[in-house]
């Protein structure tokens, strides 16, 4: 990889981080025949186009790393900075929420039993879902729990 390509990629990474920390490109406006409108992407300067691309890239990177339940709450935000702030707010207290969820899963495991008129298939699906949830939290079962 040539040094100019590496330098360009490094600059894009800095611009992407800047989109999250400082906010997006404020799109410039242009006056055409007495009407003021925002510039089209094709009308942006090279630096503005890079910043606009970084805004989109930052938003996509953030959204891709979210658990589905958080994604559903924030996916409507199109600006990386607003998105990041909302996620930070939602994720505060996550460790407490995780502990509560683990306690509920251990409790559900301890109380897990066959339900009247339940098919073996339904029992298996319910049990598999419980174990999958426990596995998502890397929960370990001691021999005496099984």
What this model shows, in words?
There is one protein chain. The protein has 146 residues and is mainly α. It folds into 2 domains: 3-91, no CATH class; 94-145. It is 64% helix and 5% strand. It has 6 helices and 2 strands. Strands 1-2 form a two-stranded antiparallel sheet. A hairpin with a 2-residue loop joins strand 1 (29-32) and strand 2. The model has no long low-confidence stretch (mean pLDDT 78). This is Integrase, catalytic region, zinc finger, CCHC-type, peptidase aspartic, catalytic. It comes from Tanacetum cinerariifolium (Dalmatian daisy).
Percentage of residues assigned to helices: 55-70%
Q: What are the segments in which pLDDT stays under 50 over at least 5 consecutive residues?
A: none
* Straight-line distance between termini: 54 Å
- How much of the sequence lies in strands comes to 5-15%
**Biggest beta-sheet profile:** 2 strands, antiparallel
Q: How would the blueprint of this fold be written?
A:
Elements: H1 3-22, E1 29-32, E2 35-38, H2 46-64, H3 68-74, H4 80-91, H5 94-111, H6 120-136
Antiparallel strand pairs: 1-2
